[in-house]
């Protein structure tokens, strides 16, 4: 499978502030890739670098086999980009905007356009500036889907939308996913979980991991161990895959980031022989990211304290 | 070409009110301005005619200001329709070719600034009793000269994000130009027109502004285009300083002295004479800080040979001295 997107040690600095550090990842063709992270983590900066809206300070990236530095003009024929912050052709009606964009794309599919307009219930004669945020996002999406792009990049397309509009958009994306690679950023993990096939997690400008959703969900487990005697301290010598271990009322709880089934249980019992009962539970995406983010923060504090000491 | 016309048509549809306003102002200018030529007749035609004439003069003066203001409005609006500043514009991730976008904007300016202005000038020539199409080279030169206003306006629009910023920037530039102009009036010492300045000022402005526009459309690097534009006054200043520091030979070649033929007679391409009958034939200005004395001599110029341009060279003492000697030799002046 070839890559729709590939980055190699991509970095971006604004003055002395580092917005993105040494990011290397790839997105395979035909996948729905979710780029997640807290607000300000660097998702939008990464997307702007991929769309050649910003120039990287270091590193390089390719999109659909093209160096992003050369991404302009007709090379956008095969790429769709929709962002919550993007200015739109406010002066135009929805129909006027579609009429205007149509001649730019030789492969524009009028039937698909008409179907999407019906599906999203868009008022063609209304001006874009008179539309609600949800309607504007839907109009932007139609104008970016109607030419059947090979790659669709969406920056926070779902934030701030009511659940009904959100579901409509997700349904539209899901239908398009058969022929388009979709990359979308979001900090709302619940909705990503339902349809993304791959996920990348950015924190403070660094890509902490990038992998298939099924693999991620498969290797994380919420672990509860009972029968730990009072007075036992949470050890710093636990395996590094045990994240955020805490002992409450004789129960040890942590997130296992490398769950291997029976092998993991055997390892645990070897480390904690006094454990009476061990439970491994699947974690929702939201819980996984919270665990990763917390562990990352604790690690940083530990390093900082270590340096200070 | 298809994309150029597509963008152009969109701009025409979007900005038709601004276009109509600009065309109306230009048409009114072409219609009203010839009325100012009748001032002398109005004085002798009675009080009512004089009052009407005064109103026409004021209206014409207002239109002379409104025409460039309407250009400012048109150019700013059309360039900002696909703004080049920022990273959130809808068009930057669409298949726009920057050359075609720039061509569409230039076509718009040509269609709604240059073309109406050319028509107005042709109408004025016709109104003045001239055959309009006999003066096409002069008209083209005039279009080049209005580019000194139009091209910098286009450049500033390409370097600003919205109308408010454009207006503030333009006011700032006008304030700087006015300040520099005022500063030159404070120095009453005689000055020399910098050699070749009249020949190179317009091309320099057009070249620098044109480069800034191309850089901005091709790369959207605002800092680079702004640096280029800021270099304009810097380069201008260096050129002026260099001209003052040049050896006399460059000044001489810019303002050559008249040479006598084998019989000792100067072959002047025009008949120059001391205008003794003028109101103030000779005036002497003194009191400048550096002790220089300025002398103004009224000269009557007539019988200019074809293809000859007479230019003034104030402050070139040796040139004036040579010229005065020649006038004395011919008995045109004494002492």
Largest sheet of chain B: 2 strands, antiparallel
| Envelope shape of chain B | globular
Rounded mean pLDDT of chain B is 80
Low-confidence stretches of chain B: 314-319
What percentage of residues of chain B falls in helices of 4 or more residues?
55-70%
Order of helices and strands of chain A: EEEEHEEEHHHEHEHEEHEEEHEH
Poorly predicted runs of chain A are: none
CATH C-level label of the largest domain in chain A: Alpha Beta
What's the structural domain tally of chain A? 2
What fraction of the residues of chain B are assigned to beta strands by DSSP? under 5%
Structural class of chain A: alpha/beta
Percent strand of chain A equals 25-35%
How many beta-strand segments of chain B? 4
Explained architecture:
Chain A is α/β, with parallel strands linked by helices and 309 residues long. Chain A has 2 domains: 3-213, P-loop containing nucleotide triphosphate hydrolases (Rossmann fold, 3-Layer(aba) Sandwich), CATH 3.40.50; 217-308, Alpha-Beta Plaits, CATH 3.30.70. Chain A has helices at residues 43-50, 94-101, 110-120, 133-145, 163-176, 189-195, 213-219, 262-271, 285-308; strands at 3-14, 17-23, 26-28, 32-36, 58-63, 66-67, 79-83, 151-155, 181-186, 198-203, 206-212, 221-226, 242-248, 251-256, 277-282. In chain A, the strands form 3 sheets. Chain A has a 6-stranded mixed sheet, with helices on both faces. In chain A, α3 (110-120) runs antiparallel to α4 (133-145) and α4 (133-145) runs parallel beside α5. Chain A is elongated and about 70 Å long. At the A-B interface, β7 of A face α1 of B.
């Amino acid at each position: 499978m070839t890559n729709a997107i590939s980055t190699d040690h991509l970095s971006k600095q604004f003055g002395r502030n580092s917005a993105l550090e040494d990011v290397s990842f790839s997105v395979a063709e035909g996948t729905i890739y979710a780029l997640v992270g807290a607000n300000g983590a660097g998702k939008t900066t990464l997307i702007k670098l991929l769309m050649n809206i910003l120039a990287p300070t270091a590193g390089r990236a390719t999109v659909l086999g093209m160096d992003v530095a050369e991404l302009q003009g007709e090379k956008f024929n095969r790429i769709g980009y929709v962002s919550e912050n993007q200015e739109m052709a406010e002066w135009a009606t929805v129909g006027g905007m579609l009429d205007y964009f149509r001649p730019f794309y030789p492969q524009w599919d009028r039937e698909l356009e008409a179907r999407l307009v019906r599906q999203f219930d868009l008022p063609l004669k209304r001006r874009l500036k008179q539309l609600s945020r949800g309607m504007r996002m839907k109009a932007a999406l139609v104008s970016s889907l109607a030419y059947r792009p090979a790659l669709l990049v969406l920056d926070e397309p779902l934030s701030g939308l009511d659940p009904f509009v959100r579901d409509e958009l997700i349904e539209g994306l899901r239908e398009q996913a058969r022929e388009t690679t979709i990359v979308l950023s979001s900090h709302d993990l619940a909705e990503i979980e339902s349809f993304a096939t791959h996920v990348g997690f950015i924190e403070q400008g660094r890509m902490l991991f990038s992998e298939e959703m099924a693999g991620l969900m498969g290797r994380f487990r919420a672990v509860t161990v009972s029968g730990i005697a009072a007075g036992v301290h949470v050890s710093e010598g636990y395996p590094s895959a045990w994240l955020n271990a805490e002992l409450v009322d004789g129960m040890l709880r942590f997130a296992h980031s490398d769950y291997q089934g029976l092998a993991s249980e055997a390892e645990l019992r070897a480390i904690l022989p006094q454990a009476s009962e061990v439970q491994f539970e699947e974690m929702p995406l939201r819980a996984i990211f919270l665990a990763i983010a917390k562990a990352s923060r604790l690690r940083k504090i530990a390093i900082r304290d270590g340096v200070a000491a | 070409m298809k994309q150029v016309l597509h963008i152009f048509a969109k701009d025409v549809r979007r900005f038709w009110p601004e276009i109509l306003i600009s065309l109306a102002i230009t048409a009114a200018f072409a219609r009203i301005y010839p009325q100012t030529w009748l001032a002398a007749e109005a004085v002798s035609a009675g009080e009512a005619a004089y009052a009407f004439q005064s109103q026409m003069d004021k209206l014409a003066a207002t239109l002379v200001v409104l025409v460039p203001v309407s250009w400012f409005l048109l150019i700013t609006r059309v360039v900002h329709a696909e703004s080049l500043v920022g990273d959130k514009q809808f068009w930057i991730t669409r298949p726009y070719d920057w050359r075609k976008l720039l061509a569409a904007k230039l076509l718009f300016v040509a269609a709604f600034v240059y073309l109406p202005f050319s028509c107005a000038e042709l109408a004025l020539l016709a109104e003045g009793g001239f055959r309009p199409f006999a003066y096409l080279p002069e008209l083209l030169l005039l279009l080049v000269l209005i580019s000194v206003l139009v091209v910098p306006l286009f450049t500033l629009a390409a370097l600003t994000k919205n109308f408010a910023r454009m207006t503030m920037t333009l006011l700032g530039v006008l304030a700087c130009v006015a300040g520099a102009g005022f500063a030159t009036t404070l120095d009453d010492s005689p000055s020399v027109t910098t050699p070749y300045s009249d020949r190179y000022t317009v091309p320099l402005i057009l070249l620098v502004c044109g480069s800034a526009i191309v850089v901005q459309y091709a790369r959207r690097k605002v800092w680079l285009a702004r640096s280029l534009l800021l270099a304009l006054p810097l380069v201008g200043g260096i050129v002026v300083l260099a001209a003052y520091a040049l050896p006399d030979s460059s000044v001489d070649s810019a303002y050559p002295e008249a040479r006598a033929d084998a019989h000792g007679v100067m072959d002047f391409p025009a008949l120059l004479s001391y205008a003794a009958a003028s109101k103030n034939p000779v005036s002497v200005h003194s009191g400048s800080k550096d002790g220089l004395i300025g002398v103004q001599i009224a000269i009557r110029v007539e019988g200019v040979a074809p293809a000859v341009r007479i230019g003034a060279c104030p402050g070139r003492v040796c040139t004036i001295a040579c010229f005065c000697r020649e006038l004395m030799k011919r008995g045109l002046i004494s002492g």
